[in-house]
Amino acid sequence: MCGIVGYLGNQDAFPILIKGLKRLEYRGYDSAGVAVLSENGQLEYHRRKGKVDDLLQHMEGKVPDGNMGIGHTRWATHGPPNDVNAHPHLSGDGELALIHNGIIENYHALKETLVARGHTFYSDTDTEVLVHLIEEIMKSSEGLDLFEATRVALNEVVGAYAIAVVDTRRPHELVLARKSSPLVIGIGDGEFYIASDAKPIIEYTKNVVYLDDEEVARVSLSSGLKIRTIANHKVTPVITELEMAMESIEKGGYEHFMLKEIHEQPRSIADCLRGRLRLGHETIRMAGIDDHEEMWAEAKRLIIVACGTSWHAGLIAEYMLEDFARIPVEVEYASEFRYRNPVIGKGDILIAISQSGETADTLAAIRMAKEKGAHVFGICNVVGSSISRESHSGAYTHAGPEIGVASTKAFTAQLAVLALVAMRVGRLRGALDQLRFNRLLVELDAIPEKVEALMKSESKIEALAELYKDRPNALFLGRGYNFPVALEGALKLKEISYIHAEGYPAAEMKHGPIALIDENMPVFVVATKDAHYDKVVSNIQEVKARGGQVIAIVTRGDTEVATMAEHVIEVHNSDDAFVPMLSTIPLQLLSYHIAVKLERNVDQPRNLAKSVTVE
Ligand code: M6R
What we know:
This protein is α/β, with parallel strands linked by helices and 615 residues long. Helices cover 35% and strands 23% of the residues.
């Protein structure tokens, strides 16, 4: 949600912090701030409501001087976005400055205690309480330095945090900590780069240390990196090498990251299949399953947990797994699952799907499943993310960094991985015969090329966007494998264009939503030639009979729907299970072009954040 950056070294900190904040702005963008510490311990800080550019504008002519600093881009939880609530927050004596991503759940009780001890607060944030708490501990326990006081303070904190703190009395030292919110430390040559994820770090160094939960770190120019747990156990830092390429975090000539990411899908799906789909060998190789064959063969049940678009991928996976592997599957919103008392335990496999690998509810769901004895298989895009590290086994989607808030290439890569899982498990359990398996391999292998061909429809889709951009509502319908595609189409449209949209199973329409249909309602129907085709055609007739305007996604060469629909967009044919990887693309392009025409901020839509690390 919020983004954190930090720098300690010999270079000017400010430009590095600002560049880092811009790379992290996709995480949260309602306010931004920086604090820079000069060699003689002079702290200069600036905070501003709005984007990083608003902060820069506000700071014109006031570039702070110093080789150490911290920066923050905020997604508001406690208190509205304004200059006062923006980070960094300062201790009462002004000696400490702190930035925070997460939520301090017991901030109210802590605040009351601190107020009773004479502390005054200026913001509505939970974060300000934490910096005062560290200050109070430093004052009341003579001799505790920033690192120790932070460690002690965090023992009193309930909630989630990734923090960076500076102390004007120690201008060569930065203190960091994390619990449930990510934090990465880049190790340079005599310098350190801190960030919520690797994107701001990659251009400086490939060597990083991922801080683990309940760890506190001190980075110092004289003594390097030291880590302890908040319970005061020594931790030996493990350096990991980043694999990310710089081009993957640039727009590469596209107007928006979202458009770039839509166009990357032929490549990202191919990358996801590479080395796993082994056409010549008539097999699928996936380490996360190969290493646990018996467990998958004997699993009683699969439970899929995810949020948002990843949950839609989970719904499609349910159909695939039931079809190919004949195993009972449940798909749950992570946020609902974790607050029930679900029946889950040994013999169950929980599949967690998450692009970021940091979604708080999904992370909490896997922890709960682990406690209850289930095996957790994580499907993540971000390498080294919390969910990928906390899962027992798993598979990366290899889609590359996804920076647009609206998920596009991560979704189709999730579908590709889930198709591989379903087929592999289907063979393991003897539910999928070799002949059908081989046919599926061929179909899956052909998907990247078919996605590429779809990009040719973009100008037609852009013209449709012009026609429908001013409609206040839209309905998306689909059946079978295309029902979650309808949900995903509606989510894409509403999140980036702010048009109200609903996705429905086409047959459910007559149980309520049909009342919404009139000549002003565009109805986007996914009507590809699959097992439900005839039924969907009947649903289209029902819409037409009530004056609705139908825009249909159809299989190439379809002539029947074309006679009923106002407009059709063609996709190639494939196995029903793989069609969502195709039928979703026109809907992504449609949402994108509508949002652009409405002059929305496509990559950073209002109120949203890419990585939802609060519950
Ligand atoms: O990183 P995750 O896949 O766990 O994120 C889940 C959702 O927050 C995410 O899919 C969200 O719904 C996107 N904005 C959809 O485009």
